[in-house]
Write a structure and sequence with these properties.
Helix content: 25-40%
Number of helices: 20
Distance between the termini: 75 Å
Structural class: alpha+beta
Number of strands: 21
Strand content: 15-25%
Shape: globular
Strand order of the largest sheet: 18-15-17-16-20-21-19
Length: 616
């Protein structure tokens, strides 16, 4: 009986009941592979949202995610307990029915010239499309303002939809001739303010939406590589590769919507980077169309030594240099075996020690993530109420976990694991995980638990948007830190958040969760989720970003990086001189001037905070 109870303790980590929707494109897909209408401003699909199913219970509509279709009685009580603020359905803020969109500045001559160059069907002045293309997913600013507050300060004047590399070249050429500013647009999922337009540049701005360029140009099965257009989304890429038995292995939280070009431009990372690498490891070569011409290496080989390679300029370029049109990427056969696991530890320190030992052992699963106690309890709150036999089984599990094994529900943490490869590889990984988990007092919690915890990731942003309706301000930020700085950084951020919320008169109590999402030889990525109530604040957005700014400085002061994979955009610009030397910054500015002398790409992300030559 004890072994059975321990094996089914899966409900103690993420505990979101997995519902295999009929539309799911594969029995073991991490997210719904079907298409759908995307929300114009908030995250995700219009068929998926949190809604009240009584005074306190909520449910998730649709059938795309594990949480969908079930009543969740513990979610609102958990939020109220963590934030010490009541949540009532009648206090939901109403979304604005209409948006103020300024008139386009594009003149008829420019529109006609663009239509002649790429086709009138590829040029839009529609107000709704212009507004959608003028923001990312920075919830405590862009999305909050759009739905409940003031309108955006600036909106693009038109939207262009190129369908080929020739179209992109024609757009860039025409922009140079007519002093038109271009903003590359992929999936619009950034949380760094990267799509916010400068308000002091009076030129016409056009968003270049790359999503019609979403084809696999060629696939080389012998050498395991493929040439792919940059506008393809992660979902589209995996569907197309999967139909031929392959995968790219790149699996960020935004995989349903973000694009290959966006991954390169932000220097992205995915959850399965242990096996497949980060985006800079996956991409062999990429093409950038700049005002002075194409930037690319002409032969994609496994590795080469041909001097300084301009290819490096594409990673983290954030739309400052040109438009990424295609890339040659590594592909991998679909894994023979995919298995999940989960492990509980008595505290975060033991979980970190386990991760470090696993990294040093050299046997790594495709993904392994350690969540702190707040995030673990958050996952437990997102489960349907157990009834009948399940109710008694859950009570037994809790008895074994807390009374027999001595786990403290307010300190315990958990790891979710995804293993991929041959049967022999996965068996070896599973054995090593079990061996090391035992050494550090871990308790294995089962495959279903690991799968639920992994899949829950794809529904988190919907929760963010739901809580925004109650003036709860929340967002994520991430960093990479050396192994010996993990606890310094997490503790310092926690202490700073508490002191800043008190100093700013924030009501209730702030929420901070964090997880180690990726491990490296020298350290880890820590992914924070922070939130608090803005009800008592006269300027909630301004207070939020001031507190977040101080948390970023705290991270830097305690040995963390400015970003691990979200990029810089505009929200982290002020810190760049702490992470780059003055001469490094000057080298990049000179490079920008050489590639874009007329400052066609004037979005001003990263170090490019001021108007470059060509701005008006």
């Amino acid at each position: 009986m004890l072994e059975i109870a321990l094996a089914v303790v899966a409900l103690c980590i993420a505990a979101a009941v997995v519902k295999q929707a009929g539309s799911r494109g594969g029995e073991d897909s991490f997210y719904d592979l079907s298409d759908g209408e995307r929300h114009p401003h908030k995250w995700g699909y219009t068929d998926t949202r949190f809604e009240f199913d009584g005074p306190k219970p909520v449910r998730v509509t649709g059938s795309r995610y594990p949480l969908a279709g079930y009543t969740l009685p513990n979610f609102i009580p958990f939020v109220e307990d963590m934030l010490q603020v009541p949540v009532n359905p009648d206090e939901m803020a109403a979304e604005k029915e209409t948006q103020d969109v300024p008139a386009s500045r594009a003149d008829e001559g420019l529109v006609a010239a663009l239509g002649e160059a790429i086709g009138a069907e590829c040029v839009s002045l529609d107000d709704r499309e212009r507004l959608v293309h003028s923001h990312g997913q920075l919830s405590v600013d862009e999305i909050y303002r759009l739905l409940y507050g003031n309108s955006l300060a600036r909106v693009v004047d038109l939207v262009l939809y190129p369908e080929s590399e020739e179209h992109v070249s024609a757009i860039v050429r025409l922009a140079s001739e007519r002093d038109l500013c271009l903003v590359p647009y992929g999936g619009g999922t950034n949380v760094s303010g990267a799509l916010a337009l400068p308000t002091d540049d009076g030129r016409i701005f056009a968003s270049v939406d790359m999503r019609r360029m979403n084809e696999i140009v060629w696939l080389d099965e012998e050498n395991l590589q493929a040439c792919v257009e940059a506008g393809i989304s992660g979902k589209e890429l995996e569907c197309a590769l999967g139909a031929r038995g392959y995968t790219s292995g790149h699996d960020p939280d935004s995989v349903e919507f973000s694009t290959l070009g966006g991954w390169i431009a932000t220097n992205a990372s995915g959850m399965k980077k242990n096996r497949y690498g980060n985006i800079e490891d996956i991409v062999l070569e990429a093409t950038l169309v700049a005002p002075t011409g194409e930037v690319e290496t002409l032969h994609a080989t496994p590795r080469n030594s041909v001097g300084v390679q301009p290819r490096g300029l594409l990673f983290g370029s954030e739309g400052n240099f040109g438009i990424i049109t295609k890339a040659v990427i590594k592909i991998h056969p679909q894994p023979e075996v995919r298995q999940y696991d989960a492990v509980l530890f008595k505290d975060f320190a033991r979980g970190v020690d386990f991760l470090k030992a696993l990294r040093q052992a050299g046997t790594l699963p495709a993904s392994i993530r350690l969540v702190n106690n707040n995030e673990l309890r958050f996952g437990r709150a997102l489960k349907a109420a157990a009834t009948g036999f399940k109710h008694y089984k859950e009570k037994l599990e809790q008895f074994v976990l807390f009374k027999v094994k001595g786990f403290d529900p307010m300190r315990m943490v958990g790891c979710t694991v995804v293993m991929e490869g041959s049967a022999e590889e996965v068996a070896h990984q599973k054995g090593m995980i079990a061996k090391l988990a035992k050494r550090y007092g871990g308790l294995r919690a089962g495959a279903s638990n690991g799968k639920r915890g992994y899949m829950l990731t794809f529904g988190i942003a919907y929760i963010r948007d739901f809580l925004n309706q109650f003036n709860f301000l929340g967002e994520t930020f991430e960093t990479s830190v050396p192994w010996n700085k993990i606890h310094d950084v997490t503790q310092a951020v926690q202490e700073k958040l508490l002191s800043e919320c008190e100093a700013n008169g924030v009501g209730g109590r702030p929420y901070l969760a964090y997880r180690v999402t990726q491990t490296y030889h020298t350290g880890v990525c820590i992914y924070f989720t922070m939130g608090f109530s803005g009800r008592r604040l006269a300027q909630p957005i301004e207070v939020y970003h001031e507190i977040e700014r101080k948390l970023r400085q705290t991270i830097l002061d305690h040995g963390g990086s400015l970003s691990h994979h979200h990029g810089v955009g505009k929200k982290r610009q002020e810190f760049m001189r702490q992470v780059q030397s003055e001469n490094s910054i000057e080298v990049l500015r000179k490079t920008k001037q050489a590639m874009d002398p007329g400052n066609v790409f004037a979005i001003r992300n990263g170090i490019f905070t001021e108007r470059e030559s060509g701005g008006s």
